[in-house]
Specification:
There is one protein chain. Helices cover 63% and strands 3% of the residues. By secondary structure, it is mainly alpha-helical. It folds into two domains: 11-106, Winged helix-like DNA-binding domain superfamily/Winged helix DNA-binding domain (Arc Repressor Mutant, subunit A), CATH 1.10.10; 113-167, no CATH class. It has a two-stranded antiparallel sheet with strand order 1-2. It starts with a helix and ends in a 12-residue tail after the last helix. The model is unreliable at 171-179 (pLDDT under 50).
Length: 179
Amino acid sequence: MHMLLASKLGALGVLLSDVGERAAEGLSLSAVALLLALHDRPGATATELAGIVGITQPTAVRVVEGLKRRGLTARRRRAGRTAPLCLTAAGKRRSRLLLSARLCAIGSLIAGLSIEERASLEQTLDKVLRAATTSRAFARTTCRLCDHGACDGPRCPIGMRASELERGTGVAYRGGEAC
C-alpha cells in the first residue's frame, strides 16, 4: 500500500499548501517567504534571499520591490555593490501575523489528535525530514516558512542533519545550527 500512503501524503501537501495560501492574505508565496526570511535575517540582500526562498535573483528583486511599494521592506545604505534589506515596522508586524496565522491554521489540522498521536506524528515527521535533508542550502529553502524560534538547534531535524552533513558525520551534533 505504498502508493496509498504516497497519495495521502500528496493530499496532505496540497492541504497544507492551501492553508498556507489562505493565511498569506493576498501575498504570493514568494512574498511571504521573502518577508519571513528577512524577518529572520535582517540585512540580507535580494541575492541571499533568492537563495533561501528558492527563486531567481531577478524574481527576488521584483518581489522585494512589490513589498517595498506596500511599505513592508526598505533598503539600507549600500555596502559597496550590495543593498542590504530590512523590514519596516509594518513589515515586522505583517511577518509576525503571517507566521502566526499560518501556524494557527496548520495547528488546527492536528487539533483532533491526542497528545500521544501528536508525539508520534512529530517523531515520524522528524525521521522523514531528517532523511530528506541533503545540505544546508536544502535546509534553508525547506525551512523558509518555519518559525525559527520554535524549531531551532536540537529541535530542528533538518538543521541538525545539515550540520551533520557539513561535519561529515552520521551522528547528531548537539550544538545544532538553525536552518
